[in-house]
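Each lists sequence, tokenised fold; shown next:
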Amino acid sequence: MSGHSKWATIKRKKGAADAKRGKMFTKLIKEITIAAREGGGDPGGNPRLRLAIDNAKAANMPADNIERAIKKATGELEGVTYHELVYEGYGPAGVALMVEVATDNKNRTVADIRHSFTRYGGSLAETGAVAWMFERKGIISLPEQKKTEEDLMNIVLEAGAEDLQLEDEYFSIQTDLESFEPVRKALIAANLELENASLQWIAKNNISIKGDEAEKVMKLIEAIEDNDDVQNVFTNADIDEETINQAN
């Protein structure tokens, strides 16, 4: 699995099912709404909104959906106010989890998240309990295209990337926070199609788990991700490939 985000491969394999359920669009719309509310509705002057729109287009979201989300955020249309929160917790085998949410009801969301942790053998933790195990990084993923790995490496390293890995016909590029946007722009300038670009919580060290423990961790993460308020889940669990394949 990728050395960047141990949950990335699983999420990619889950992507088609998520799209069918509409969950992917829901998460993207929330991100667009939050970005536009905080930085304005002009993507030219709002990098976070520009990134959110690019990711939505990459997921084939209709332009009308994007425009409507921006208008709701800027007050042109009636909309919902979302609050961004990060919950921390422990799963089976002592693995750490970071859960990013966007919610219009904090009490409902924390109760639901706590229930999922408890049901699947984990526990919700205090703020800061596991955050120190992670670093905030930029992660850009793209399918293999016209560029060779060496050509792509030259592009991203020159723009400031930290690392590039190839797995299952997908490239995964890691950057620090400052280099994230320059690397993304360099890839776009090279006429490369990006699958996704986002800031993620990446574990400093991973815990290798397999068998029953790996299955329990996957069930916990899947239960959390099924919550409509959850935007992303990050973990330091290095789940073995066999367990991932069995789950799909």
